Amino acid sequence: MDRADDYIEFSKATPTPFHAVREITQRLERDGFLPIEPNGAWSFRGGERHYVIAPDQRTVIAFAVGHKAPSEAGFRILGSHTDAPDLRLKLNPVSEGCSVTRLHTQIHGGVLYRTWLDRPLDLGGMIYHLKRDSDGRVQDDPETGLPALERHLVRANKPIAFIPELAIHLDRKVNSEGKINPEEQLVAVLGSGEQDPLLAQLSELLGHDLRTASGFDLHLFPFQDPVRVGVDGSIILGPRHDDLAMCWASCEALRASVEQCPDSDRTRVGYFVDAEEVGSMTSSGAQSSFLRHTLLRITRQHAAYGESGHQAEAAFQASLVVSADMAHAQHPNHPAKHAAGHAPQINHGITIKTNANERYASTGETSALFRGLCEKAGVAFQEFVIRQDMGCGSTIGPIVAAGLGARTVDVGIPMWGMHSTFESCGVDDLNDAVLVFTQHYSS
Ligand SMILES: [Zn+2]
After folding, report:
1. Ligand 1 center to residue 401 CA distance, Å?
2. Using one digit for the tens of pLDDT, what is the confidence trace for 319-365?
3. Which domains does the chain have, with CATH numbers?
4. Cα separation of 221 and 56, whole Å?
5. Predicted local distance difference test score (pLDDT) of residue 438
6. Residue 115: band (very low, low, confident or very high) from pLDDT cuts 50, 70, 90
């Protein structure tokens, strides 16, 4: 299997942040990474490999412990995000009308509405059930004292819903105006029957009863696999390239790095974080303390820390963060959307993203460092600066840079159709990303 086909397999397994965390950790376990509890006792020696999952189960930090304390040798960090714009179920999601049962959704991130219409949709995520005793009373968790919960990762694995388009005959202006009201028009059809039997069927597919659930985080996502397209198969059309393609490349780079170089002085960190699409302000998102606290704990619990003579925070000054999130490729049907000299092309190399308003964390210095990594890895790079008459997007780079005080560069592979249900990116670029990220870990 070549790398792009492996990415397709990864993409199929990662429709939600919960599934992404599971797939990433399963892959890392094949290379000797072991789980550790966030609230357990930690102590590390060089050469150990671990991962820690945030309590919300949507973010994971994996690390290969270096032989020197991070306060002396620094971290090599690679960050990418596990969430993608999608439709999630409302708390009371079901209604009947026009002889169908419907699922009401809420929007996560910058969803490109029209691309969700007329697609078979699958459902998955996490379902929570309160634990009860034989009399039906809620039980307490002996450790936390909170009500005890059972948590179930679920996926229907069937096209259980879809959102029908309106016929052009009923809206002659659809091609010129065609606005979509998300409250009224991004409601999915669950089936043409009544609510109770359909919910029973859906619960059976999920393996857990949705009707008696105490809570859920359930996402709709396209029931369609990514495919290689073009006569030469050089482009992958599929869901959630932003940013699961960079999660995949980061995970594979970490695996390749520990295989090629099991004994590094530096501690290598894979940071796979939720909630980028909505500003990162969650308990495990990039604005949370999860990354900083984890890195400080790794530093202080390192066997060589006491001998290093450094403060733990010194680890950040000696570190380099690569924030890996997808970039906009110049679109062949909209070439004027890019600035001259800053128009990345598909399959022409990884993109360094820069913005004078600091919407990206790259600086002249960190861009130069990343160019050096590209050169060492034999990988081409391109550059992106947004047109000055357009607003610039952002990502976790500036947040991580500010939170740690560490040098950071924002990069990503170029793609078309960011936030469409089906996005496109290049096969060669995926391969290049793994190579240069492996180089980052090895430097
Ligand atoms: Zn992104």
Report:
1. 17
2. 999 999 999 999 999 999 999 999 999 999 999 999 999 999 999 99
3. 3-84+239-442 (3.40.630.10), 86-224 (2.30.250.10)
4. 20
5. 98
6. very high
Average pLDDT over residues 271-293: 97
CA of 325 to the centre of ligand 1 (A): 5
Separation of CA 322 and ligand 1 centre (Å)? 14
Mean pLDDT score of the chain: 97
> Are the C-beta atoms of residues 241 and 75 closer than 8 Å to each other?
no
* Per-residue model confidence (pLDDT) at position 308: 85
Report d(CA 363, CA 360) in Å as an integer.
Answer: 9
Distance between Cα 276 and ligand 1 center (Å): 7
The pLDDT of residue 1 is: 67
Ligand 1 geometric centre to CA of 394 (Å) = 8
